[in-house]
Amino acid sequence: MSVKDVIKNSVLQSALYDNSLSSGVYTTIVVDMLVALLIGYIIYRIYKRFFSGVVYSRSFAVTLIGMTALTCMVTLAISTNIVISLGMVGALSIVRYRTAIKEPLDIMYLFWAITEGITIGASMYVLAAIGMVIMLVIIIGMSRMKERKNAYVCILHYSGDDAKEAVLSEFKTYVHSVKSIIEKDDSTEMTVQIDMKKDDGISGRLKTISGVRDVTLIQYNGDYHG
């Protein structure tokens, strides 16, 4: 069968020529959409549970549910015949999304919702379930790895070489790296990255060192390079 015959048969079998839908088709559509909504809600709950960014966006989280359902609906539409698929591609090609995604992991969740919607729309429930399990294992693994070690940024001002030696001696018990030292007229500003599970009172110990004027300790949850 040539490409011309395939296109002709697709046109003749499209909804333009046959407006009747069997009960089996209706059942498939309803089941796929309900499963897509369920999977989208599960992705939403996983995103909410394991979110580790700076500001949680509820609107983006709810978008994951809608994205799964809408992608499933598009897949159901283009899977009928080649005519509808070509028209859908042409219609979607003019859409431009300009919303900036600040968290890199949000892109993963967005593509996760899209791929789940595609597989469910194609009635590949086993593939969708396997994808859910694999992604859940990856997310749980990443969250546990992050919980083992937290990054803290310590900014302190001190005066004198003795204070500097005492401060560096206090940092020796941690995995740390000095990021910057700014010399001023009467004081020095030092920025140090510390890796530790939790704050064990290091800021208080640093404050008691003679010559240290102030200490600021900030927990950093984002990506960093040592």
Provide the descriptors you would attach to this structure in a database record.
4 strands; four-stranded antiparallel beta sheet; alpha+beta; 226 residues
Domain tally:
2
Radius of gyration: 28 Å
Q: Strand-residue fraction? A: 15-25%
- Share of helix, binned: 55-70%
Distance between the termini: 60 Å
Q: Outline the low-pLDDT stretches.
A: 14-19
Structural class: alpha+beta
Strand order of the largest sheet: 2-3-1-4
Mean of pLDDT:
78
Main beta-sheet strand count, sense and barrel state:
4 strands, antiparallel
Q: Order of SSEs, N→C?
A: HHHHHHEHEEHE
- Approximate shape: elongated
Helix count equals 8
Number of strands: 4
Tell me what you see in this structure.
This protein is α+β, with helices and mostly antiparallel strands and 226 residues long. It has helices spanning 3-12, 23-50, 58-78, 82-92, 104-121, 125-148, 161-171, 202-207, and strands at residues 150-158, 175-183, 188-196, 212-220. Strands 2-3-1-4 form a four-stranded antiparallel beta sheet. β2 and β3 form a beta hairpin. α3 (58-78) packs parallel to α5. The N and C termini lie far apart (60 Å). The relative contact order is 0.11. Residues 14-19 have low confidence and may be disordered.
